[in-house]
Amino acid sequence: MQTVTLGKDGPAVTALGIGTWAWGDKLFWSYGSDYGAAQVHEAFDATLEAGINFFDTAEIYGFGESERLIGQFMRQTDKPAQIATKFFPVPWRFTARSVSEALTASLERLQVSQVALYQVHQPFDFLLGKRALMNALADEVQQGRIATVGVSNYSAEQMRQAHKFLAARGVPLAVNQVRYSLLTRQIESNGIFDTARELGITILAYSPLAQGLLTGKYTAESARSHQAQPLQGARRIDPRFNQSGLEKIAPVIRLLQDIGAVHQRTPAQVALNWLIAQGVIPIPGAKNAEQARQNAGALGWSLTEQEIETLDRATQAWK
C-alpha cells in the first residue's frame, strides 16, 4: 500500500484517507435520513479491508458524533486505524487549558490515548493568539497525546507563522488541510502549495471530488430533463450543481471518462489519482461500503505523465 509521511518526520499514513464529515452530520449531509450508523460502519470496515487506515474527523462534525462513531468502530475491529481530528478555535476558547480540554474530549470520544494528527480547524485565534495556540499544541506533542500538529484552511503566510512558532519549540508543522481538486486548484497560485513544499508540510486535500462533481454522477443533461435526484445537503446551495455550472465542467468529466476507460477506472478514481500524483493526500468521503471501495480504487496504479499534463491543461480555469 502506498504511504506518505506527515510532514518531514511524522507518522506514515496511506496515500489516500477518508474524510468523515458526513458521519453523524445532520446539518449539511442529512445523516440519519438516507444513511446512518450502519452504513458508515460498513464504510469504515470496507476502508480498512481495502488497506486504507487513515481517517480524518473533527470535534465539530456532528457535534462530536463523528468522533464517537469512529471510537465505537475501532473498538469492534482488530485492524489498526490512524486518526486525524481537529480543534475548533471558537472565541471563548482563549487559554491553553481550553486546547487541552478540547483534546481530552476528542480522545475520550475516540477512545484512544493519542491521535496521529491534531489540526486547528480554521485560522482563527481571537484572544488566545497564534503563538499561545501553537505553544499549547507543542505541549500536547511533548505529553504524547498527539503525534503531529496540523492546521486547516491556513493561507501561505498563516502557515509560515504557525511553522515559526512551533519550530521555536522544536515541533514541526506537519500538515495544512485545504480544499483541493481538479475544480479547485487555487492553492497552486496563491502560495500555499509552494510554501508547503518549502517548509516540508504535507497537504491534505479535502473535497477532492468537488462534493461529487468529479464523479460524473451529476450532469447538465439530467438537470435539463429534470431526471436527476433532488440535491441533498450542502449541494442544494452550491451553484456548481445547477445546469450552467454542470455544463461548464462537462468537458472535464468527458476527459476523466476517457482516461478512466484506458485504465478501467472511474472518473472519480482518475481525479483522486491526479491528486496523489501532485504529492498530496486526498481525503474523499464515504457514506457506505461501496463508496469506500470506489475510493480505494484510486490506489495501486498511476496516470501517465501525458495524462497528468492533459488534465492539468483542461482545468487551468480553476487555478
UniProtKB/TrEMBL annotation:
Keywords: Oxidoreductase. CDD domains: AKR_AtPLR-like (cd19093). Residues 16-314 form the NADP-dependent oxidoreductase domain. It comes from the Bacteria. InterPro entries: AKR, Aldo-Keto_reductase, NAD(P)_OxRdtase_dom_sf, NADP_OxRdtase_dom. The keyword Oxidoreductase applies. Signal peptide: none annotated. Pfam families: Aldo_ket_red (PF00248). This is Aldo/keto reductase. It comes from Stenomitos frigidus AS-A4.
